[in-house]
Structures are given as structure tokens and as C-alpha cells.
Amino acid sequence: MILRANDQQKEQREKMRGGEGVISLTHLVPSEKLFHARLVARLELPVGASIGKHFHEQEVEYYIILEGEGEVTEQGKTFRVGVGDVVITGPQEEHAIHNSGTIPLVFLAFIQTL
């Protein structure tokens, strides 16, 4: 199966999960094509933008940082992240991400259902 870039759904979300700014999402795989997952997307956070604190009941979320740098908060602790880093957040773990860099923070996000 090949999913063409021209067919990918794009959207903008303002103050995502209570965060700041407008986030750009590109859904790389439509929901009806996902197996044991709820999301496969490319996200772009402008400088200063964030996705607010949230958790997933029975899911694991993966972020793979492609461009820029930022800060991830997990379970009340903040960590710097940059290109090539992978963030894995398990079920019932609270997390957030913030672009604290000087260029857009771009990453892939995968939400796996358990």
C-alpha cells in the first residue's frame, strides 16, 4: 500500500490540549488504515507553541524529533529534546511538549493502542 503525500489530511489546532499557539498536523495515515494505532502524524510547532499536559488511558505515544529543539515534560520533570531524539510516553503518564528553540519544532507522533 502506498499513501501519497497529496492525499494526506492537514489541519491546524489552536491551543492543542491547553497549550499555546497554533499547531500544524499532517495525518500521514488515515484513521481507517491504522492497525493498533490511533494516530500517525507529522506535527509542526512554531517557536513558543506547545501541546499542553495530557495523558493517554490505554495508549503509548511516540515522538520522533525531526527538526528544531524543545522541552518535553513527563511526570513533572522537564527534558530538552532535539533532532534524532525519541520520546516514549506510556499509558497513564502525563506529558507535554513546548518549542523553546529558535526554529519550528517538527516531529512525528505515533499513538499506539494497547
Give a description of the structure.
- The protein has one domain (16-113): Jelly Rolls, CATH 2.60.120.10.
- The mean pLDDT is 97.
- The radius of gyration is 14 Å and the shape is globular.
- It is an all-beta fold and 114 residues long.
- A hairpin with a 7-residue loop joins strand 1 (9-14) and strand 2.
- It contains no helices and 10 strands.
- The strands form 2 sheets. Strands 1-2-3-10-5-8 form a 6-stranded antiparallel beta sheet, with no helix packed on it. A 4-stranded antiparallel beta sheet has the order 4-9-6-7, with no helix packed on it.
Key terms:
single chain, 114 residues, mainly beta, 6-stranded antiparallel beta sheet, 4-stranded antiparallel beta sheet, 10 strands, 0% helix, globular
Roughly what is the average pLDDT, rounded to an integer?
Answer: 97
Going across the major beta sheet, what is the strand order? 1-2-3-10-5-8
Strand content: over 45%
Total E-strand runs: 10
Uncertain ranges: none
Output the CATH homologous superfamily. Answer: Jelly Rolls
What is the CA-atom radius of gyration, in angstroms? 14 Å
Indicate the overall shape.
Answer: globular
Under CATH, the topology can be stated as: Jelly Rolls
Query: Looking at the chains present, what oligomeric state does this protein adopt?
Result: single chain
Could you state the order of secondary-structure elements as H and E? EEEEEEEEEE
Largest sheet: 6 strands, antiparallel
Distance between the termini: 24 Å
Helical segment count:
0
For the record, what CATH class applies? Answer: Mainly Beta
CATH architectural name: Sandwich
- The helix-and-strand class reads mainly beta
Tell me the count of domains: 1
Helix content: under 10%
